[in-house]
């Protein structure tokens, strides 16, 4: 478990929302809880989607379809693991972390899937100095996050599972089926305790990297997280997360105006969907996904610019700098897509958009 260091750059959910969890535990103390869970399923739901206790307001961690969160929690009550799938920026990792924090109070048992992830990261490895000196022993064993979750009856997280090689993914099949890890070097096996589960995430844009086998998919309950359904929902998500992140980073700029957030979200939604919000005009989309997460990052970075090198209030110049980098990832294709959007959409939106249009147009050359 990560220590509570208030100077840490990023606190895990169980520390960031520690007061909310304590309030929920107090309210929930007489409720029946699944084995190894610190909260009842209804209290976990309240932690994720927001609500009230007798002592405080519980903030919403996930803004979207509440039914999807209920299905996710119900899955973790069974012997099946959970797979969250969606476009970049649909809060897969955020939902995974907050569910784990609410259920077992420790979201740190996590594997980050990459091309370099090996079977040792999933099962166990060895301290080779100890192994050479003394041979295989419990002291030389390096337990993976999944191993530790199994022996403590808690939840392990597996981020970006489809970025791992297929043979590494398939190492999960026996673990998820048999709920054991065999250690032939020590002639023993570890059995999962009640409460053990895995929450994995996969990016729909990376589906072709290392597609999951049908056998592995069958061992997950799969939930597809959609992009924010409406402009208002996405504005609400961006506004909330920007406020939280800027407070954590102690940025010296004021929070963005509603108008600034609405402009950025409008641009992102239109370029993402390939049409203006009123659907009267078709648009070309850039090569990369410009997600809700990237909108949050853009505005947070604009606050850093405004606080360090500007007036302390986000300007059109601050927003334009972030937009250029967010949209134009492929210089040849995206620069033209962005130019067409500026000239055919933004330029025609009147005086309120004029400053942002001029700055973006000058920057795009």
What can be said about this structure in brief?
The protein has 365 residues and is α/β, with parallel strands linked by helices. The chain has helices spanning 13-16, 18-27, 41-49, 66-76, 92-104, 119-122, 128-134, 145-152, 166-169, 171-178, 214-217, 231-249, 258-273, 292-309, 316-327, 331-344, 354-364, and strands at residues 51-52, 57-58, 81-86, 110-112, 124-126, 141-143, 155-159, 180-183, 188-191, 197-203, 220-225.
Largest sheet: 5 strands, parallel
Count of beta strands: 11
CATH topology of the largest domain: Rossmann fold
Q: Helix coverage percent of residues?
A: 40-55%
Query: Which percent range describes the beta-strand content?
Result: 5-15%
Number of domains: 2
The end-to-end span amounts to 49 Å
From the 3D coordinates, which CATH architecture of the largest domain would you assign? 3-Layer(aba) Sandwich
- What is the name of the CATH class of the largest domain? Alpha Beta
Q: Write down the secondary-structure element order.
A: HHHEEHEHEHEHEHEHHEEEHEHHHHHH
> Given the C-alpha coordinates, what overall shape results?
globular
CATH homologous superfamily placement of the largest domain: P-loop containing nucleotide triphosphate hydrolases
Mean pLDDT: 92
Question: Can you tell me the residue ranges where pLDDT is under 50 for at least 5 consecutive residues?
Answer: none
Enumerate the strands of the largest sheet in spatial order, edge to edge or round the barrel: 4-7-10-3-11
User: Which structural class should the secondary elements be placed in?
Assistant: alpha/beta
């Amino acid at each position: 478990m990560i220590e509570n260091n208030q100077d840490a750059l990023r606190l895990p959910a169980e520390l960031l929302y520690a007061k909310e969890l304590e309030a929920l535990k107090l309210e929930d103390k007489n409720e029946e809880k699944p084995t190894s869970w610190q909260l009842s399923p209804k209290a976990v739901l309240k932690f994720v989607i927001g609500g009230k206790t007798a002592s405080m307001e519980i903030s919403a961690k996930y803004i979207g379809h509440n039914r999807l969160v209920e299905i996710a929690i119900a899955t973790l009550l069974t012997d099946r693991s959970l797979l969250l799938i969606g476009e970049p920026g649909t809060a897969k990792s955020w939902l995974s972390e907050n569910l784990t924090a609410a259920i077992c109070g420790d979201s740190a048992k996590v594997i980050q899937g990459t091309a370099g992830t090996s079977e040792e990261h999933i099962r166990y490895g060895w301290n080779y100095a100890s192994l050479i000196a003394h041979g295989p022993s419990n002291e030389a064993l390096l337990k993976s996050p999944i191993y530790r979750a199994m022996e403590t009856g808690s939840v392990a997280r597996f981020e970006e599972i489809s970025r791992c090689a297929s043979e590494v993914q398939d190492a999960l099949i026996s673990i998820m089926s048999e709920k054991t890890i065999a250690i032939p070097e020590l002639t023993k096996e570890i059995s999962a305790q009640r409460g053990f589960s895995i929450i994995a995430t996969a990016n729909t844009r990376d589906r072709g990297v290392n597609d999951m086998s049908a056998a592995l998919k069958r061992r997950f309950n799969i939930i597809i997280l959609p992009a924010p359904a409406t402009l208002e929902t996405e504005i609400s998500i961006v506004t909330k997360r920007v406020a939280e992140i800027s407070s954590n980073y102690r940025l010296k700029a004021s929070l963005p105006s509603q108008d600034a957030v609405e402009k950025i979200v409008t641009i992102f939604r239109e370029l993402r969907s390939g049409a203006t919000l009123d659907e009267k005009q078709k648009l070309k989309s850039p090569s990369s996904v410009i997600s809700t997460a990237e909108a949050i990052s853009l505005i947070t970075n604009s606050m850093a610019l405004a606080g360090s090198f500007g007036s302390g209030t986000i300007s059109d110049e601050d927003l334009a700098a972030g937009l250029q980098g967010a949209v134009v990832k492929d210089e040849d294709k995206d620069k033209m897509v962005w130019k067409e959007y500026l000239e055919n959409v933004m330029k025609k939106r009147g005086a309120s958009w004029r400053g942002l249009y001029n700055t973006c147009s000058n920057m795009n050359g």
